[in-house]
Amino acid sequence: MNWAAYVENGKPFDDIYIFDVHGHIGGDIRLQLGNHTADDMVNTLDRLGVNSICVSPILAFASDWVRGNELALDAVKKHPGRIYAYATPNPFYEDCDLSRYLVPGNGILGIKAHGEYQAGTSLCDCRFDPAYEIADQKRLPVLFHAWTARQVAEGMDVASRFPNANFIFAHVGFTDADAKAGVITGAKKYDNVYIDTAISSSYDGTIEYLVNRVGDEKVLYGSDCSFFDCCHTLGKLALSRLSDTQKEKILGQNAKKLFAI
Amino acid sequence: MLRFVDAKCMIGRRNAPREGSPVTREDFLEIMDRCHIEKAVAHHAMAVEYDMMDGNHTLVEETAGSDRFLRQWCVMPQTFDEFLSPAELVTEMKKKDVKSVRLQPKTSAYSLLPYAIGELMGAMAECRVPVFMDAGETSWDGIWQLCTDYPHNTIVITSPGYRCARQLAPVLAACPNLRVGISNYVVHGGIATVCRHFGAERLLFESGMPVSSAAAAVSLVHYADISREEKELIAAGNLESLLSEVTL
User: Which of A127, A119, A116, A123 is nearest to A152 (CA)?
Assistant: First the structure.
């Protein structure tokens, strides 16, 4: 497949299956985002040839978890098969029961644990455990926001305690060396640990480096759209030195298995 | 096919390269070839991490015989004879075929105000030499001040970051002499938005190598929801136009 020809012509990747494991909808008081509604997201998917994206509304982890999760439900209902979502817990609410969102067939495929936006709460805080228990029982994917070595270590603790759930470490911890080392070690140690590619400023060679160390089965395409433009990471993957098979696994085939789509 | 000319690339052996990132000239050229980047404005890591003039001279040595790298020198004001005077700088730049300069006030601990760099900026303006600086070297208020204090200089702000849209827009509106590189401006649809509000003339393609990804940066341009003409300006036209105006 001539990946470069797609990028150089700005053409959508219509011939391969692409599933983006890391997206968001809604705005953020902290910074100005680009177009960020569910409709905007689908327009972006069409422009790039991305089949589907799994999102967590920023509202759900930055402010009102109930309205945020309802926003996720609305988005997946409006765009079935194009937008999927994560249910998002808030550790400060004892009544935060995500089981009502995690109903088979409704398009909510997993759980997003942020922690950092929630007053810096640890990912291994026991108040997140009810959400992880659901993921463990239902064998669901959990997406971790994991920029720092501390967050990576917290996430690994959770992954070891809930072996039936699958944990995707977002951003690969590439902002500091300890985080990077921790996530690579964890991905090799635990069968249920995966890595996504959403890194705002990573260099050429990042993805090849990761794949060489943890294997192409453990890396998933995540854009972190609408914090970042979807094409940023997609283009980096398409123009990387990975083989066609490796690119196809990372862009969609691995996610297809993990999310049981 | 779009032609790309890169407005920011730092070559040289760095103190702490990230694993798998480009280090040698051949590493950079391989990525440039893969991403169809014809040429790159390059400064040297040693001028950022160690000694400015040692780094600038090393840049000249390491780019000798290559037409793929367009030399850029890091600069600072002459204090206690540590650096070249503006007149000496102009003479040396002319000799060494250097057509742009880079400020690094935070890294090298100097002021951007006219009492400190006014003479240097005047010399660059006289020769129409574009002045580059990373956004992280000062605040956005500092960038506004820089553009306002030196209205006859073209200021190119590189690596602006995805969180800066609210600061960037008013400075673009207030400062017609400001241009912005795109390597780390990864705001969703950000390039199209800037083009719509301020025109494609204000943006320059930059890879940001070796810290940022050239492949990601070219993709931002290829997939931007803008016209072919606008893409051509951002990919190469705007930078080539700036460099063609240099009268050294």
Answer: A123
Residue A163 falls inside a structural domain: yes
Is A204 part of the contact surface with chain B (CB cutoff 8 Å)? yes
Domain of residue A108, CATH code = 3.20.20.140
Residues 6+ apart with CB under 8 A from A131: A87, A89, A96, A98, A111, A113, A142
> In this predicted model, what pLDDT tens digit does every residue of A137-148 receive, in sequence order?
999 999 999 989
- Interchain pair A205, B186: CB under 8 A: no
In this predicted structure, the answer to whether residue A176 has a pLDDT above a threshold of 90 is no
Beta bridge partner(s), residue A141: A166
In order, the DSSP letters of B31-90 are: HHHHTTEEEEEEEEHHHHHT-HHHHHHHHHHHHTT-SSEEEEEEE----TTSS--HHHHH
Inside any domain, residue A12: no
In a domain, A26, yes or no: yes
CATH class of B4-244: alpha beta
The pLDDT averaged over each successive group of 10 residues in chain B (248 residues) is: 96 92 94 97 98 98 96 96 96 98 98 98 98 98 98 98 95 98 93 98 97 96 97 98 97
Residue B215 to residue A208, Cβ atoms within 8 A: no
| A177, pLDDT greater than 90 | no
| ipTM (interface pTM) | 0.95
Task: Provide the residue ranges of all domains of chain B, joining segments of one domain with +.
Answer: 4-244
Per-residue pLDDT tens digits for A71-80 = 999 999 999 9
Query: Contact A183/A172 with Cβ under 8 angstroms?
Result: yes
Instruction: Tell me what percent of chain B is helix, strand and coil, each rounded to the nearest 5.
Output: 45, 15, 40
User: And the tokens for B97?
Assistant: 């075929």
Residue A193 in tokens: 């640990």
* Domain assignment present for A4: no
**B residues 86-145 closer than 8 Å to A (CB):** none
Task: Give me the domain span that covers residue A97.
Answer: 17-258
Strands A166-170, A52-57: parallel, antiparallel or unpaired by DSSP?
Answer: unpaired
CA A199 to centroid of chain Cα atoms: 11
Number of domains in chain A: 1
| Single-letter code of the amino acid located at B248 | L
